[in-house]
Amino acid sequence: MTNTGFVFDVLIPVGKIVAVILYPMLMTIVMIWLERRVVALMQKRLGPNRVGFQGILQPFADAFKLFLKEDIMQDQADPLLFKVAPVLVMFSSLLAFCFVPLGEPIRIGTYQLTLWIAQSPVGLLLVLGLSSISVFGVIFGGWASNSKYPLMGALRSVVQILSYEIPIGLTVLSVVFFARSIDLVEIVNHQSQAKIWFGFMLPVSFVVFWISAIAETNRAPFDLPEAESELVAGYHTEYSGMKFAFFYIAEYAHMVLVSSLVVIMFFGGWLAPFPNVPAFAFLKVIPGFVWYLVKIMFFLYLYVWIRATLPRYRFDELIRLAWKWLIPLALLNFLVVALIRYIL
Amino acid sequence: MELVFVFLIFGLLGVVLLSMNALLGPKKTNPDKEKPFECGSPYLQNEIKPFPIKFSLVAFVFLLFDIEVVFFFPWALIFKEMRGPALVIMLAYGAVLAAGFIYAWKKGAFEWD
Questions:
Q1: Residues of chain B contacting residue A165, judged by C-beta atoms under 8 Å apart
Q2: What residues of chain B, 61 to 80, have a C-beta less than 8 Å from chain A?
Q3: For residue A198, which of A264, A257, A251 has the smallest C-alpha distance?
């Protein structure tokens, strides 16, 4: 009796937490390989293909190399902020994964194994808020380095994240209108009942959200804070070893997080595709977690594809795009969705 | 309970990972190594001098809009029950913000100069 209590109260939560830590890290490793290999093939290069099958072990080798590096802090840096910054960036994005539902609950006898650590009635706001905390890490890192390239990278990052936070908030609202909940699990359940994904009902919201999300994660073509041809490595120029790895993992974890949000809000999370076509009912046999991974991989591939295709924006163009195009468009979309929802 | 585990495990992981470099990495200090990065040449300035920050007005406009979005969330959840008044009130509120947005636009808050 006490034995099963221990299993359900301690072992399963701890196992889930370890899984939540390992999942972004494994995705980071897969993404680093995918990005280098796919971008290389798109540019008619080979990319990493020596270490392991098709070079799949290359990111493991890179990660292990970072363990063995010397931890350098330049003499004028602010020691406390310099050490806090990478931790803040890394753990705010890992913490956000606790609220992301990865699949439908699995029943084991009477016990229901949920594929999320915590279900919160304000899950969507929590995830958005936690992912925004990482900007503090970027500012701290850039400021504490006391060097010009990191500082400029941090300042760019601040303006960029401030600008693109608003279209994200406004487009998320249109999903809230239809789901009538800010609980991520409820949003997926609502799409399951409605038998249509919000991405097809709200295409403008999806496109604005996706563009803003690329800017929020500092990815190409909006990777101004770490534009290597202008700012060396941006806000993490002065970092080395595991602290650099934290910034790096956090960036990829952030991409996985944003892709998860897109999938959950606009493409039905763990739901099988074609819910209203009886001929495709057999797709429901495949577990929800697999569908979720397939969808997420599509959006992560899209990140790489966009990076290989589009040149980098100039900084004033980036800000102008946010304030003169995306925000008015998001406001208009918000108004139209509100009116439609009011009439229906 | 689960939250306690989350913080315990995350904290443990952080300590282990961050102490990796101290345990495994080399420790060769060198005065040149601890200078700020400057593409290999001697560092040109010793402190960061004040410089103009472009787009600082964006931060103020952001504050307005972020608060607007926060107010919209509870409203979006209940406006179906509130019917008419909710929409009118929010439209009035949004119109004030839109006027401010257009004012900031005309003032050139979103321009480089």
A1: 62, 66
A2: 61-62, 65-66, 69, 72-73, 76-77, 79-80
A3: A264
Would you call the peptide bond into A221 cis, given omega within 30 degrees of 0 as the criterion? yes
Sign of CA dihedral A268, A270, A274, A277: negative
Q: Is residue B24 part of a domain?
A: no
Our count of domains for chain B comes to 1
Q: What is the pLDDT of residues B19-76, one digit of tens each?
A: 877 777 777 777 777 777 777 676 666 666 777 777 778 888 888 888 888 888 888 8
Predicted TM-score (pTM) above 0.90: no
Residues of B in contact with A13 (CB under 8 A): 1-2, 5
Q: How many residues does chain A have?
A: 344
Mutate to test the interface with B, among A21, A125, A128, A166 (most CBs of B within 10 A): A166
Strands (E), A98-254: 106-108, 111-113
Is position B40 within any domain? no
Predicted complex ipTM = 0.82
Q: A182, A167, A123: which is closest to B78 by C-alpha?
A: A182
Into how many domains does chain A fold?
1
Q: Is position B21 within any domain?
A: no
CA-to-CA distance for A239 and A141, rounded, in angstroms?
A: 9
Cβ pair B21:A341 closer than 8 A:
no
Residue pair B64/B72 in contact by the 8 Å Cβ criterion: no
With CB atoms and an 8 Å threshold, state whether B110 touches A145: no
Show the domain range for B71. Answer: 56-106
User: Range of A241's domain?
Assistant: 2-343
